[in-house]
Each structure stands twice: as structure tokens, then as C-alpha cells.
Amino acid sequence: MSKEHSRYRWFVVGVFFFFMLLHQTDKLMIGSLQVPVSETFGIGNKEWGFINTGALIIATILYPIWGYLYDRYARAKLLALASLIWGATTWFSSIVRTYPQFLVTRASTGVDDSSYPGLFTLVADYFGPTLRGKVYGLLQLAQPIGYLLGMIMALMIAPLIGGWRSVFYITGSLGIVVAGFIFFGVKEMPRGKAEPEFEGAEAKALEHFHFSWKEVGQIFKKKTMWFIFAQGFAGNFPWNVITYFFFGYLMTERGYDNNSVLITMAPVILILAAGYFIGGFLGDALFKRTNKGRILVSSLGVLMGAIFLYFAMTTPVENRTLFFIFMCLTAVFMPLSSPNVIATVYDVTVPEVRSTAQAVEYFVENTGAAFAPALTGLLADAIGLSDAIIIMCITAWVICFFLYIGALFTVDHDIHHLRSQMVERAKSM
Known about the structure:
Layout: H1 3-32, H2 34-41, H3 45-72, H4 75-95, H5 99-108, H6 110-113, H7 116-124, H8 129-140, H9 142-161, H10 164-185, H11 213-219, H12 223-252, H13 258-287, H14 293-313, H15 320-333, H16 337-348, H17 354-369, H18 372-383, H19 385-407, H20 411-428
Helix pairs in contact: 1-8, 1-9, 1-10, 1-12, 3-5, 3-17, 3-18, 4-5, 4-7, 4-10, 7-17, 8-13, 8-16, 9-10, 9-13, 12-17, 12-18, 12-19, 13-14, 13-15, 13-16, 14-15, 14-16, 14-19, 18-19
């Protein structure tokens, strides 16, 4: 690999990092704005849950479509389009004046939320299997850091510049700017370029690796993917519950004001960010020793995350220090599985349908998770927000743990099968 190519691929990672950082800031900021937005439209937990569920449903429906388009056409240009859509839909959300209008415009922001499979598969064609976990972990740092930036914008900047509508103007404008950077600065990479079997192969030799419905069908014949799909269905529940309800929980049930929320959650989110890279690093390290490495790290993450979140939620309200400690421990383990799940999908699927495979995985994730905010809102009104968060999160993570155990028995076979396919293709070039 030339030094120029090596430098350029890190430039691409940098561009994608800032795309994800700003996009996640815009997407996740809504959680920190629950109180002012609810006051603006005069709504409760149930209506608030429907706002967030709407965007998740739209994203869920569009995942397979984005996945198909990414496997057929230039991923970089489609990512630029997604960034442009992000900017436009956020602007629409800032100008509406009634709850039904906001419900519709906020749901429309889900169009670009389902655009990530193309980003991750394009990165997979710049970096080989033994590096992908760390790179994905690095990229996913953008999610919690974006959450933190969104929290700062919502709790500190919004009151200074005219309220929650003003910060939506800012993030919407940034989406349009980032679209230009991606469109003009990111080059497409031949699918399969970074697979070890094709090292040194000319780009033209890889052109026949194009989308195939037959290969799409093969995705569903891999047993590992069924465990990945099932854990995704359950595993995204806790993230959406915490994203959309935790700030309201801190303020209404633990008596935190804006400054207390920021002081408490900023370190937790930074630890969460580090957890993504730690998860990717550990997954790559163990993957070099055993094909089960990524799954082992993932199972540890969901189990320990569930344990420490339970301890945090059951800590007495007056003991803020102990609550903070348990939330920090939760934050270490929560993201360990995320970069490893993405890398595992690519460990068992052929390059030309990886966007579709990832999109299907996200589709299954969001099919369950899209209803998490609404279900949590209904449950919170019935039994209280604290108990609703505990039930939704702990149950989901325990289910994920047992599904990862199942994947330990299938992943070896599926990885060996893919590597055999790549060897055969390399011989035919």
C-alpha cells in the first residue's frame, strides 16, 4: 500500500467522523430537549415517545432501500445526498408551529438516519478485517461525543440564542456543508479491495463483484447472521430508551437541574465514547487469536452493562456520587458490542452485498427499537419512569447475552466459508 493511499484513507475516516459527529449531534440532541419541546407543544410522555418513534419507523422502512442503493451505486455520492437530506429535514423541524406538524417533520429526519451502511462498507474497502474493529470503534466515538455536544447545545447554547428552534437552524446548516465535503472529497473504492486475498489486485479485476440477489439470499443462510439479527432486535431497545428518556428521568425523578445533568452526564458520555474504541480494540485483538473474539467481547459488554445499570437505577436519589460511579461503569461496557457487531457482519458476508446485509441488520434492530420510545412512554405513565427504564433495558440486554452465546457456536463455520470464497475468487482472477 502506498503512503499516499494510507494517508488518504485516514482522511476519509476523518471526513466520515465529522459527518457522524454532527449528524449524531443533530439526531440525539432531541433527547436533551424533551422538557422545552414538550412545554412548547403542551405534550406528555406518550406524545413525546411518538415523536421519536416516528423517526425510527421511517429509518427502519428505508434501511433496505439504502442498503440496496449502496450495493448498486457509488456510496460516497449517496452519503452526500443523505447529508443534504439531514440538513433540509432539520430545517423543516425548526419552523413548524403545532405538535402534529412537528411529529411529521421530526419523523422525516429518519430518512437520513438509515444511511450508515454505505459509510461502514466503504470503510471496509479501505481497511482489512484485522483493522476494521478499531476503525469502527474510532468512528463510533462520534455517537456519544455527538450526544454530549447535543446536550451542551440543548442545555447551554439554546437558552442563550433563542431556544430549541435556533439550534436546529445551526445543525441543519451544518448538514448541507458536510454534504459538499463528502461529494467533492471522498473517492469511491472497489468493493472487496481490502480483503487479504485480493492484496495487490487491480481495481478492474474487482469490478465483477457486483450486487447479486443470489448473494443476498446467502445472507439469510448464515446462522451467525440470524443471531446477529435477533440480538439487534433486542439490543437497540436500551439505547433508544436511554437516549430519549434519561434526561427527563434525571430532571423529574432525581431532581437534577440543567447544570447537574451536564456535570453528571458529560463524564459518563466521554467514558461511553472510549468504550467504542475499547470494544473495537479488544475485538480485533481477540479476533486474531480466535474467530469467536468479537462475539466474546460483545457478550461481556451487554451482561456487565445490564448489571451496572441496574445498580445505578436502584441507587437512592440522595446518593448522587454512587449513582455517578455506577453510570460510569455502565458506560464502559454498553458500547463494547457495537463495533464488533458491524465487523462480524462483514466477517461472514461477501463484499458486494455488505451494505444490504448491514441494512437488514439495522432494519431488524429498528423494527424493535422503533417502538421502544412509545412503549417506554406508555409503561412510564403506568408504573413510573424509573421502573420502565429498568424493565426495558435489563430485559433486552439479558436476551442479547444469550443470543451472543448462541453465535459462539456458528461464527467459526461462517467465517471459514467466507474466506474460502475469497480464496476461490482470487484464484479465478
